[in-house]
Design brief:
Layout (H helix, E strand, L loop, with lengths): L1 H30 L11 H9 L11 H17 L10 H13 L2 H17 L4 H82 L4 H29 L17 H9 L5 E7 L7 H22 L3 E8 L3 E8 L10 H12 L3 E6 L5 E8 L3
Parallel strand pairs: 1-2
Antiparallel strand pairs: 2-3, 3-5, 4-5
């Protein structure tokens, strides 16, 4: 009950204040008579002035009823004797402004008609008629201008809200893309390192007695793969940390690191990996450099984990338009269960404006191909 009462007060208080101010202006000639118009005045002057001001309390909720009551009051006021001359119909001005600001088109047309009729009815003289017509017209125009300004401000507010929502969506998409990139990188790093470590660890005990040097190389490869994975993970986690000061970051892997990657995987027992290049290397964008390395890394990881291959070939074919990467093996043609690997290869290539495909080779084996555009 208290809340509804407060709502009524908040809704009607501004309009009630406006009505009382207009009534005070209208009552001023009655309270302070002028020498040209001495009192006493007719009691109807007090009543009709009140009925031409107090309806403004409903100027926004019942605008047409409000202006109709004011119009009738002004007509009656004009025929009553012993009343002070009021060249300006203050209540009509406020009502006309209110309808021009918030009324419908039909209501605004009716207001224009009433304004013209009021100027004629109240015309005790030409001067009074012109003053009334000009003042009400100005009030109407000010209401129209205020309405257009309000519409413009609302449009700007909506646009600002839309831009803010778009900015939040852009940030969310960027965060989602960054999380996906980090997930791909971590998958590539861990899958590659763990696959090499598992294969070398399985081969080490087999040859530890018969070929100690080969076993030593296997354990060295395990340690090297672990150290390399730790370095890359530490670099990635360092980027993720929210640190206040800028610290130097190690560079991301690029195409220049592919030979070392091939040599590392080539140390796997029972797997011979060969690197072939053709054409003259051309500059790649930063993301394409990383993508090229990660694509080769993931393709070789699948070869080690799933293909049971004895030979793999990595080809880097450079042209003026693109770098074409081809990784083939002579394994069973399987790429393992669906996961981040092959999906990540396609996504990395697509993010650079390139393409990637993977699938078995007729006659046995598996092939991964990717084409990355050269240049910016």
């Amino acid at each position: 009950m208290r809340i509804s009462r407060q709502r009524i007060i908040d809704a009607y208080l501004p309009d009630a204040v406006v009505a009382l101010l207009v009534l005070a202006v209208l009552y001023a000639p009655l309270v302070i008579p002028r020498a040209s118009q001495p009192g006493p005045f007719s009691p109807w002057a007090w009543v009709l002035m009140a009925t031409s001001a107090l309806p403004l309390v409903w100027r926004r909720r019942a605008p047409m009823l409000c202006i109709a009551v004011i119009f009738v009051s002004l007509v009656a006021y004009n025929v009553v004797h012993h009343v002070p001359n009021q060249p300006i119909a203050w209540g009509l001005l406020v009502a006309a402004y209110s309808i021009a600001w918030g009324g419908r088109r039909s209501q605004q047309v009716i207001v224009l008609v009433i304004m013209g009729c009021t100027a004629l009815v109240m015309s005790k003289s030409l001067t009074t008629s012109m003053i009334g017509l000009l003042t009400t017209t100005c009030a109407y125009i000010l209401g129209i201008m205020a309405r257009r300004r309000e519409i413009r401000l609302q449009a700007l507010a909506r646009r600002a809200g839309e831009m803010e929502r778009e900015r939040e969506l852009d940030l969310a998409r960027a965060a989602t893309g960054e999380r996906a990139r980090i997930a791909r990188d971590m998958h590539d790093i861990l899958a590659h390192a763990v696959s090499l470590m598992v294969v070398q660890a399985e081969a080490g005990p087999v040859v530890v007695r018969t070929d100690p040097e080969r076993a030593e190389r296997a354990f060295d490869a395990i340690a090297g793969a672990g150290r390399d994975a730790m370095v890359q993970l530490r670099r990635m986690l360092g980027v993720l940390k929210d640190e206040g000061e800028e610290k130097p970051r190690a560079p991301q892997p690029t195409v220049a690191g592919v030979p070392d990657l091939v040599a590392q995987v080539g140390g796997t027992p029972g797997l011979n990996v060969e690197l072939r290049t053709s054409g003259d290397p051309h500059p790649l964008t930063a993301d394409a450099e990383v993508a090229a390395y990660r694509i080769v890394q993931e393709a070789l990881t699948n070869t080690v984990k799933h293909a049971a291959a004895t030979r793999a070939t990595v080809r880097l074919d450079w042209t003026d338009a693109e770098l074409r990467i081809t990784v083939t093996d002579d394994g069973c043609g399987e790429s393992g269960p669906p996961g981040y690997g092959l999906v990540g290869i396609r996504e990395r290539a697509a993010a650079c404006g390139g393409t990637a495909e993977a699938g078995p080779i007729e006659g046995g084996g598996h092939r991964v191909t990717a084409a990355l555009r050269v240049g910016a």
